What we know:
Elements: E1 2-3, E2 9-10, E3 15-20, H1 28-32, E4 36-42, H2 51-61, E5 70-75, H3 81-100, H4 113-131
Antiparallel strand pairs: 1-2, 3-4, 4-5
Helix pairs in contact: 2-3
Amino acid sequence: MIPITDAISLQDDELDITFIRASGPGGQNVNKVSSAVQLRFDARRSRSLPNSVSIRLQALAGSRLTLEGIIVITADRFRTQALNRADAIERLSDLIRKAAYRPPVRHATKPTKASKVRRVDSKVRRGDLKSTRSRPTSSE
């Protein structure tokens, strides 16, 4: 079990972890060892996530989300499987924590009468200033 927040924790069987060969520098080690981790998590069908968190998670995942609703995270920052596995799980946990935060509801408000008057006054003053910049008319 992987704890995410006080109310949310993931079961180990919900994560599909496979090891793949990493790219980049590392010499002969890169060609022989599958040290990179590809973590797959089904955000749509997860029984550990509430529906609202699942929806926000899918929106946050962006290009990491497949059409089937599976989040794919690839970790190859480190040279060992254990560190890459921990890194992938931590990145998924961070993503779920962000999705678990529910933004406060915004209540629409109306501008006060005084602020409307101030706005119109400033527009009138600005218009008067701009009108003085025009070319003089023949009557002046």
